[in-house]
Design a protein that fits this description.
Layout: H1 2-25, H2 50-53, H3 58-62, H4 64-71, E1 78-82, H5 90-97, E2 102-107, H6 110-122, E3 128-132, E4 145-151, H7 160-170, E5 171-183, E6 196-197, H8 199-206, E7 211-217, E8 223-230
Parallel strand pairs: 1-2, 1-4, 2-3, 4-5, 5-6
Antiparallel strand pairs: 5-8, 7-8
């Protein structure tokens, strides 16, 4: 009975999440699709959904600390948290890279950036630079980033090819692009299909933009961790 109640609760949360996307950004009646895979682009979560990003259940559902530990991020690293929202991963990254490192916290929505700034200030973090990006440009410095992290974000890009091109330009030669995406391969994950991605689809979309899939980590309850390097 507890399992059934929990599943119903999670389903309601997933539907609420998608409702926030639709309400805040008015999903088109004929959503755009990716030219390679035909995947439908998901709506972007608006500021009304900020509470979803910091819900207590997220610790158990996504295990953010475990995800970051698996990436073995070093102190002093320069990290870009792309689609940072209100900073749920940003403040964790800031603690990992330390005072000698830096986190660029990017989002395309001014209200998300405003809330992120407050959360960073409340935590006394001084190594985070909020960046208001555009739908086709994260506005990151060129050749400066060790790790570009996209957590449940890539599938929402309305200009994924342009974004990947700009991210590639921001990476150092040995930099990594890391995507966390809910597993499309698992129908039991209570997230709408357009908010999930398969390994095959991610690989098919990302590699043509100058990347090579380096590793896929399956250590999280619901998400793939897909690690890309720059193609030579």
């Amino acid at each position: 009975m507890a399992h059934v109640c929990n599943l119903k609760f999670m389903t309601r949360l997933a539907l609420l999440f998608c409702a926030f996307c639709a309400i805040s950004h008015g999903q088109a009646s004929h959503p755009a699709t990716h030219p390679v895979t035909g995947r439908q682009f998901a709506g972007v979560m608006g500021p009304a959904g900020a509470d979803w990003l910091v819900r207590p259940e997220r610790e158990q559902e996504e295990e953010p600390d475990k995800a970051l530990s698996a990436l073995q991020i070093h102190q002093g690293s320069v990290v870009a948290d792309i689609g940072a929202g209100v900073g749920y991963f940003t403040w964790r990254l800031a603690n990992i890279v330390g005072s000698s490192g830096k986190v660029y916290a990017n989002d395309i929505q001014p209200e998300m950036i405003r809330q992120l700034k407050k959360n960073i200030q409340d935590r006394g973090l001084t190594n985070v630079e909020p960046v208001l990006g555009k739908i086709d440009d994260p506005r990151l410095p060129k050749g400066a980033v060790d790790l570009a992290l996209l957590v449940d974000v890539y599938h929402e890009f309305s200009e994924p090819q342009k974004m990947l091109d700009r991210i590639r330009e921001s990476l150092k030669p040995d930099g990594r692009l890391v995507l966390l995406e809910f597993r499309k391969e698992d129908p039991n994950i209570p997230i709408r299909p357009e908010h999930k991605m398969s390994v095959a689809d991610v690989k098919a979309e990302v590699e043509p933009e100058g990347y090579k899939l380096d590793n896929v980590l399956e250590v999280l309850p619901r998400q793939h961790i897909l690690i890309f390097r720059l193609a030579n």
